[in-house]
Structure formats: structure tokens, C-alpha cells
Design a protein that fits this description.
Elements (H helix, E strand, L loop, with lengths): L7 E5 L6 H12 L2 E4 H14 L7 H9 L3 E5 L5 E5 L2 E2 L7 H10 L3 H12 L7 E5 L2 H5 L5 E6 L2 H14 L6 H17 L12 E4 L5 H14 L5
Parallel strand pairs: 1-6, 1-7, 2-6, 7-8
Antiparallel strand pairs: 3-4, 4-5
Helix pairs in contact: 1-9, 2-3, 2-4, 3-5, 4-8, 7-8
Length: 229
């Protein structure tokens, strides 16, 4: 199926911008499929950790990406569920360690190449909401609506701190601020698919906005493009 045959909304942005939560809510409200591209990179990093791979040989990580045995689902209450090699890892891959690993392997061209087709395969009728860092620039360059969601570094660190605490995971606000700044630097300066808005993306600064307000704004844009009523 051609990528242009299915309507796609992309929501890109840096860590802690709220893009994952916004994308999930928009997909639910539209009744569309969801692609959490960051989860795939976290899964590669986590699988490598399980396999004892800790070096910088990109081919080792690309081999894992090519054969990634993963299944996505949702609980009855609508929360995500992710299985890696038949083991439920939804919480494990959301740790800061997994996030740092994901940012590192995402800078490896062979890994990105290995995951491109898998990500594009998520585009199925009636539509797809894709969140990540290069959804609108690389994976779905012809998406009908592209959002680049951002927020101040301080606000993103605070959100990430609260998110981790809510999941029962340990977190330190000062350390998170440093990690987010380093991840931003790495993501924006990597040689392949750097983090940046697509030329035709609409930039939304969510620093002072609630999740509900951002979701409402995205839905209004979808209506304006004939994607929803």
C-alpha cells in the first residue's frame, strides 16, 4: 500500500514535550492507529542490554532491530502494553536508562534504516498518528498534517520527573534536566535524521498549555484539513 493512500498525522518533538500523550489521545479520539516510534528504539536498546551488547558496533544493534520480536497492545483501561520476546516490558522500557540507550542507538544509521519499513507499516486505514523525532521529516514526509511539539527544557524535565514518579520509577529532577539537555544535543546534531521541524510542520509550544488544550488544538487542525468532523 502506498504511504499516500492512508492519512497520517505526525507529532514530532524533543523528550518531555508531551508528544506521546498527545498522539495517543488524538489517535483514540479519531479512531486511528498509533505509532510510538520511540518505543521501537527503546526496545532495541533494551534487547541489546538483555543480550549483553554494550559496545558501539552499529551492526550489532541493527541485527536486533531487523529481528525485533515485539507486540503492541492495550489494557482494558486503555494503557499501553508492549511485549518483547513474549515478555511484558511496558514499564521496563520507560526508564531513563532505556531512554538514554534509545537516544544513543537512534544515532546509528544502520539501526534507523532497519526500522524504517517497520515504522511505515503502521500506516493502515483509517489513518495513523505517528509520534517521534523524524516522523514528518523522514518516515512520513508526505503526511497531511505535521506537528512539531516543544516546550521549555525546564518544563520538560518537570514533566518527565512527574511521569517517572507516577510509574513508580526513581527520578532526580536535577539529573533529568542534564540528561534532557544532553539528549537534545545528541538528537539535534546526529548526522542522520536530526531532530528538527519539517519545513511544513506547525510548531506548537506546550510550555504553558495543558494536554487537553494541545489535543484540542491538534484536532482543530485535523478538522481544518478534512481529517475529522
Amino acid at each position: 500500500m502506498s504511504l499516500d493512500a492512508v492519512p497520517v498525522i505526525t507529532i514530532d518533538g524533543p523528550s518531555g514535550s508531551g508528544k506521546g500523550t498527545v498522539a495517543r489521545r488524538v489517535a483514540d479520539l479519531l479512531g486511528w492507529h498509533l505509532l510510538d516510534s520511540g518505543a521501537l528504539y527503546r526496545l532495541v536498546a533494551y534487547a541489546a542490554q538483555l543480550d549483553g551488547i554494550s559496545g558501539d558496533d552499529a551492526d550489532d544493534y541493527a541485527a536486533i532491530a531487523h529481528s525485533l520480536d515485539v507486540r503492541f497492545g492495550t489494557t482494558a483501561s486503555g494503557n499501553e502494553q508492549i511485549w518483547l520476546r513474549a515478555v511484558e516490558v511496558s514499564t521496563a522500557i520507560r526508564s531513563e536508562q532505556a531512554g538514554e540507550g534509545a537516544s544513543r542507538v537512534a544515532a546509528m544509521p544502520p539501526v534507523r534504516n532497519a526500522l524504517t519499513a517497520r515504522q511505515q507499516s503502521f500506516a493502515r486505514p483509517p489513518g495513523l498518528v505517528a509520534d517521534g523525532r523524524d516522523m514528518g521529516t523522514v518516515i512520513f514526509p508526505t503526511a497531511v498534517l505535521k506537528i512539531f511539539l516543544t516546550a521549555s527544557a525546564e518544563e520538560r524535565a518537570r514533566r518527565r520527573y512527574n511521569q517517572l514518579k507516577d510509574k513508580g520509577l526513581g527520578a532526580n529532577l536535577a539529573a533529568l534536566s542534564l540528561e534532557i539537555a544532553e539528549r537534545d544535543r545528541r538528537d539535534m546534531n546526529r548526522p542522520i535524521a536530526p531532530l528538527r521541524p519539517a519545513a511544513d510542520a506547525i510548531i506548537v509550544d506546550s510550555t504553558t498549555l495543558s494536554i487537553d488544550a494541545v489535543v484540542s488544538e491538534v484536532l482543530q487542525m485535523a478538522v481544518a484539513r478534512g481529517l475529522a468532523q
